[in-house]
Amino acid sequence: MSGAAWVPAPGPTNSLVDVAGLRVGHCTRDEPGWLTGVTVVVAPLGGVVAGVDVRGGGPGTRETDVLDPRNLVDRVHAVVLGGGSAFGLAAADGVMDALAADGIGWPVGEPGQIVPIVPSAILFDLGRGGTWGHRPRAEDGRAAYAGASAAAVEQGCIGAGTGAKVGGFKGGIGSASVVLASGTTVAALVAVNAVGSAVDPATGLPYAVGLGLGDELAHVGRPSGAELEESRARAEALPPNAGRPGLATTIGVIATDATLTKAQCQKAAGIGHDGFARALKPVHTLFDGDTLFALATGERPAPDPVEQTLLMEAGADCVARAIVHALLAATSVDRSADGGVALRSWADAFPSALAR
Questions:
Q1: In angstroms, what CA-CA distances link 136 with 54, 162, 163, 171?
Q2: Is 103 exposed, middle or buried, given 0-12, 13-18 or 19+ CB atoms closer than 10 A?
Q3: Which whole number is the average pLDDT over 257-278?
Q4: How many angstroms separate the CA atoms of 83 and 134, rounded?
Q5: How many CB atoms neighbour CB 12 within 10 A?
Q6: The overall pTM is greater than 0.90
Q7: At a CB cut-off of 8 Å and minimum separation 6, what does 101 contact?
Q8: What gap in Å lies between CA 251 and CA 319, rounded to an integer?
Q9: What is the rounded distance in angstroms from the CA atom of residue 241 to the CA atom of residue 192?
Q10: How confident is the model over 303-324, as a mean pLDDT?
Q11: Could you give the percent of the chain with pLDDT greater than 70?
Q12: What Rg do the C-alpha atoms of the chain give, in angstroms?
């Protein structure tokens, strides 16, 4: 309506696939002894421009150097997020093989001679299902790719978030999007597996709950005092602010349909880490390998400097909102009988907070 004030709102699915052309697939390994998985973001045909920013002190990544703006390759064909610590990087092999079989990749010679570009990052979930050696492999990456679709992103304990934890609660996959006044869409998908907590110990509320758009998070209320005291006693809402090497890491993808350069994507990924800081405390510790990729499909015009600033800030808020969605969508798990973890979900710890 002419003269009406613009009100920010999520896209149709409030998830990463609101950026047209992107597809997301999961492979979930939660059978006995397993608690891990793979999530793949598949680019439109021809690939997307991408950047990356790695902040955590214990990262596990693959093909991130190719995203340096000084380097040649300017398109990626998929991004893989997975569990399994450094072993889980093998999942990208399956995605590369599947892309190559579909004829998708960076041309390196004669027709048909291609190399798919698939940057990847992993989080630590080894042993959480009970068996240390169970981790994603190439076949799991291929399965995630085969299941990729443009349907609303399934969230919670799925894909790379299957074995995730955040502070003392169960973690998982979360996603969120926003449509800017210009019509540009910005979205994020995050696998939340942090040393730090996403929950304010004083209130029991997610740190970033106030960033919800419209009534997006209006159903989330303050939990009862009794539930909060019980959670504190269990060290869920106030976990120790320390960890052991390799036992965490939050990873994710920001995307937009705007036209951005590699350098601008790298900057967007860096500002996206502000979203981690808005939703997690502490963040970027020596025991996290926090990594964010940024993708630009180029379906809309390049933003001017002001619009670029708004776009990148929106990406950070999408990251924070996605972390809240991951916390809310996670479900409790108990693999203690198999030697694995027992973790309550935020929803099970604070049922009164969702009662309304």
A1: 22, 11, 11, 18
A2: exposed
A3: 98
A4: 10
A5: 11
A6: yes
A7: none
A8: 10
A9: 16
A10: 97
A11: 96
A12: 19
